[in-house]
Specification:
The complex is a heterodimer of chains A (237) and B (526). Chain A is an alpha/beta fold and 237 residues long. Chain A contains eight helices and eleven strands. In chain A, the strands form three sheets. Chain A has a six-stranded mixed beta sheet, with helices on both faces. A three-stranded antiparallel beta sheet of chain A has the order 2-4-3. In chain A, strands 1-5 form a two-stranded antiparallel sheet. In chain A, a hairpin with a 2-residue loop joins strand 3 and strand 4. In chain A, 53% of the residues are buried. Chain B has 526 residues and is an alpha+beta fold. In chain B, a hairpin with a 5-residue loop joins strand 4 and strand 5. Chain B is globular. Classes of the chains: A alpha/beta (237), B alpha+beta (526). The interface between A and B is large, with 68 and 77 residues.
């Protein structure tokens, strides 16, 4: 009975990664470097996390610290926002899984202090709109089967040991992905007495996807990055 | 309900004047303050409970030389708050009120752990927020002298012996979490059993304790607003709304009518999306793949709607004290109306179909039953309470913003099982749609944001979040720095009730009952 209902809803899946989806709501967008003459110098003071920095003629964006508060978008002085989804960056020079894992990449998700929104976006990846299974990416319940440890949240005191245990239980070769601004830089929670400044303080991170939360397509970009299917962007030191 | 007093506070305060000395009671509209002493506290609390007041939460503040302990009670049938104040000095224990008001159990344990204030008469203290295996003994992060910026090294010895409550031959304890299958939040549930049935359950949360209330101290109000939204990203707007209303009450500004109306629209949109995710997770826990996929695609439709209209899929950065940061056009208004209508129509078809699916009904009917007496004892809020016959909804009993003077239909069920919770969620989704359509049809014109100046003071803000009643207590310095921000989130109130609801049910029912409650760990851990 359910099967017919499901078929009746029709085909929803995004053409990504072959083509970009057209719906503007699929990504919230993010600020991009804007010239001072356009954005105004005071825009850097609007940013609560210090993600905007004045560099001579340009207001630069440290995307790892951007928490999508929208204040540089809605204020009187505005940054340019771009609605792209290629948000993933590489943090290590280790060899990534690449083509060998093309049809079977198993991901273990660990929550290390997320507010719930990044987990929801991860869950949306399995919805018919994104259906990551079609790309050979699977979420696995056990770390023993996992190739990738996907961490969300700034790593709190209470989750640190559980996270390390999960990583230790994974077989080599293994990779770590940090998803969400909390996992990338710890903002806006840490570093503090109970949160680290991101996953990189605890584990070696290979690929990071900033954003609060990053939309499903940006997380997908990170996963495809691991598989060598999207162009790799190195994060400047 | 006709014999209930029309001015609830007046009835309670009349009862309190008989107990308390002259001058101990101050009343201002719906908010009343009652100064009390350690001896009088039990009688005052008893009077509040007898008059139909429920505990919103306990706020502890440092006042130079001692503690100010503040018990906030809200009336469960009409507008009214009573704040019971008790002053204590340094190391003196406070009297525990949890033998009288069971819902004070968790707040008292939390305060004992974070402030190191002992509660006299509480049966189980310690190892609550600061887990014994992770945190060294003798630290009290919420005390003013504690440095929140200094990272604490993890504890090396990691000694922790789980406490067992069931004493029977062959009894064992099964731990679920903190990391368990699926994309789930980190929390642990210790289930004690003799074999098949769960005899006793202990939720062990606070793995994700981010110390938000501590790191907020001394920050500007705009920075704390960011933390408020990230408390629970899936009901960000409801928390931001409660927070902004507290700030507005301190500054005595009121947002323009158009801002109030838009706040309602977005709050109902968030409720609709959150209820849909809860229904999706419940259906997923019963193993029905197709309806799960259909429901998650409706959730995605609503997330994309939020992204299109508000620029953020989870409605961050929308509410600010003084109004709302964006306005919507005619086309966007039509987009909201059409997309939400479509979402609810699809949801309705799926829920109707689920009611005829015997495999599904077998797993949700008479499963995870929370009787009205237990719900009342725990002071359960939100859809979980309404499914157990507790019709408390802050939109109706303590109306705020655009809910004032508006009729809101409260969905109710009496059974208290997982299926009743599903029906309540579905019918609240209908009501959200009706409210969105009603408000969008008569959207007042005008500005959406008024300038405001922070000033010194303290106030309580509240809103009905998708999970239930959320209360924010805020104290500001003259320049707008946050001196104390205390969140009393609905999940924190409801988690202990989950432990009661799973008792007597089999292990395989546990994921279903957990999903049917739809609670957030992050919000509770703070």
């Amino acid at each position: 009975m359910w099967t017919t209902k499901g078929i009746a809803r029709g085909f929803l899946t995004t053409p990504c990664p072959r083509a970009r989806p057209e719906d503007p709501g699929a990504t919230p967008g993010r600020p991009m470097a804007t010239s001072v003459s356009q954005a105004g110098a005071v825009v850097a003071d609007v940013c609560p996390t210090g993600a905007l920095q004045l560099r001579e003629e340009i207001v630069d964006v440290d995307l790892g610290r951007c928490i999508s508060c929208q204040r540089c978008r809605r204020g009187e002085t505005r940054m340019e926002w771009v609605e792209d989804t290629a948000w993933a960056v590489r943090l290590s020079s280790r060899r990534l899984p690449g083509k060998a894992f093309r049809h079977s990449l198993h991901v273990r998700v660990v929550d290390a202090g997320d507010g719930g929104e990044t987990l929801r976006e991860l869950k949306q990846l399995t919805s018919p709109y994104y259906a990551v299974h079609r790309l050979g990416i699977f979420f696995t319940p056990t770390p023993r089967d996992a190739d990738v440890l996907l961490v969300v949240g700034p790593v709190t005191q209470g989750t640190r040991q559980a996270l390390l245990d999960t990583y230790a239980a994974m077989a080599e070769p293994k990779w770590v992905m940090a998803v969400g601004s909390g996992a990338v830089s710890g903002v806006p929670f840490g570093p503090s007495f109970t949160s680290a400044g991101g996953v990189a303080d605890v584990l070696p991170v290979d690929v990071a996807v900033p954003g609060n939360p990053p939309p499903p397509l940006a997380i997908l970009d990170g996963l495809l990055n691991l598989l060598g299917r999207t162009p790799v962007k190195e994060l400047l030191p | 309900m006709s014999d209930l007093p029309h001015a609830p506070n007046a009835a309670l305060l009349a009862a309190l004047t008989e107990i308390l000395p002259q001058g101990a009671i101050r009343s201002d509209g719906d908010q009343a303050e009652v100064e009390t002493s350690t001896q009088d506290l039990p009688n005052v609390v008893d009077a509040a409970v007898r008059n139909g007041y429920a505990l919103a939460g306990i706020v502890v503040e440092w006042e130079g030389s001692g503690w100010l302990c503040h018990y906030a009670f809200y009336c469960s049938y009409g507008p009214g708050f009573v704040h019971i104040l008790l002053r204590g000095t340094g190391g003196n224990p406070l009297p525990s009120i949890s033998p009288r008001v069971f819902s004070a159990d968790w707040p008292e344990r939390e305060i004992e752990d974070l402030f190191e204030i002992p509660f006299e008469g509480h049966p189980l203290l310690g190892d609550f927020v600061l887990h014994n295996e992770d945190w060294p003994e003798g630290i009290a992060p919420m005390r003013p002298a504690y440095d929140s910026a200094e990272p604490k090294p993890p504890r090396a010895d990691r000694v922790w012996r789980p406490q067992r409550f069931v004493d029977a031959p062959g009894a064992f304890s099964m731990s679920v979490g903190p990391i368990y299958s699926g994309i789930a939040e980190s929390a642990q549930f210790r289930l004690e059993s003799e074999g098949e049935q769960i005899l006793y359950a202990t939720p062990r949360l606070f793995y994700k304790y981010r110390g938000l209330e501590k790191i907020a101290e001394g920050q500007g109000i705009d920075d704390v607003l960011l933390l408020t939204e990230r408390l629970n990203g899936t009901s960000a707007l409801a928390h931001a709304l409660a927070f902004a209303q507290a700030a507005e009450a301190i500054a005595e500004v009121s947002p323009p009518p158009r801002a109030e109306a838009l706040r309602l629209v977005f709050a109902e949109l968030e409720r609709l999306r959150s209820h849909l995710s809860t229904i999706e997770e419940l259906v997923e826990s019963t193993g029905l793949g197709v309806p799960t996929a259909m429901l998650s695609s409706i959730v995605e439709d609503l997330l994309r709607l939020s992204g299109r209209v508000a620029g953020h899929r989870y409605l961050f950065g929308l509410v600010r004290p003084g109004g709302i940061t964006l306005d919507i056009s005619e086309t966007e208004s039509a987009d909201i109306a059409t997309t939400t209508w479509q979402a609810v129509a699809r949801l309705r078809r799926i829920v109707d179909q689920l009611a005829y699916d015997n495999g599904f009904l077998d797993r949700v009917e008479q499963v995870g039953t929370l009787h009205v007496a237990s719900a009342l004892r725990h002071g359960v809020v939100g859809p979980v309470g309404r499914a157990s016959g507790l019709g408390r909804d802050l939109r109706v009993i303590q109306p705020y913003g655009a809910y004032q003077g508006r009729e809101v239909h409260v969905a109710l069920a009496q059974e208290g099982d997982a299926f009743a919770r599903l029906r309540v969620l579905a019918s609240e989704a209908d009501e959200s749609l009706r409210l969105i359509e009603e408000v969008l049809a008569s959207l007042p014109a005008g500005p959406t944001l008024v300038p405001w100046q922070p000033r010194a003071g303290a106030a309580l803000g509240w809103s009905e979040a998708p999970i239930g009643a959320a209360f924010h207590w805020l104290r500001l310095s003259p320049v707008g720095c946050v001196l104390r921000w205390r969140v009393m989130p609905p999940s924190f109130t409801n988690w202990p009730a989950l432990a009661t609801a799973v008792e007597g049910f089999a292990f395989q029912d546990f994921p279903i009952i957990l999903a049917s409650f739809g609670l957030s760990v992050a919000e509770s851990d703070r």
